[in-house]
Design brief:
mainly alpha, 55% helix, 3% strand, two-stranded antiparallel ribbon, 8 helices
């Protein structure tokens, strides 16, 4: 059924498919945007569609590093560095962040495929202010559920930002991106200059 996760074979498949679905949702918010539009911050926040995609890509990659018990990358040195993690900078393109996100997704799927037990412990990095000091480990399963939550939260942000850019909403964008046939109740999105 278009717009939904396909039936899943098992827990691993289900978790990976729901992460993939949320990736699709946030990517769809960028469908048809120019780089300039992807940088736009049309609401009272500083969020942009391109910046949100850049952020979720970085976050997902970081969580897979944690699963692999790689050293944590240092936190941004300044508030500007942190804020730039949510921005599509002038030297970055929407195509570039979308391509990077594809690479991150592929890495996630490869790493998770190589883990036999989703209950495998993922030690909580110490000294990170936003990680709980009283928890020793999460599981790989918990990490995947967290990625679904994190990506879904930001996909919702991206939907709102996109609607402020040109009025496009999630389902017509998805219909356009997936080439659904037009029906009386669902018209795929078209750019304003092509809509008439």
């Amino acid at each position: 059924m278009a717009g939904n996760v396909r039936p899943v074979a098992d827990e691993r498949d289900g978790l990976l498919q729901f992460v993939a679905q949320q990736r699709l949702v946030i990517r769809t918010a960028a469908y048809g945007l120019t780089d300039e539009q992807a940088r736009a911050t049309p609401t009272s926040s500083t969020l942009s569609v391109g910046g949100l995609i850049k952020h979720v890509s970085t976050v997902e990659d970081g969580w897979i590093d944690i699963v692999l018990q790689k050293p944590i990358k240092p936190a941004e040195d300044s508030q500007d560095d942190y804020a730039n993690g949510f921005r599509l900078l002038e030297d970055e393109t929407l195509e570039g962040v979308l391509s990077r996100y594809e690479e991150v997704a592929k890495r996630t799927e490869e790493v998770i495929a190589g883990i036999e037990d989703l209950g495998q412990a993922v030690p909580v990095p110490k000294g990170v202010p936003w990680f709980p000091p009283d928890v020793e480990a999460w599981s790989v399963r918990w990490v995947l559920l967290h990625l679904i939550q994190e990506t879904a939260r930001h996909a919702g942000h991206a939907d709102l930002v996109r609607e402020h850019i040109d009025g496009a909403t999630a389902m017509p964008l998805l219909a356009a991106a997936e080439n659904w046939p037009e029906t009386p109740w669902m018209k795929p999105w078209r750019p304003a200059d092509a809509a008439s």
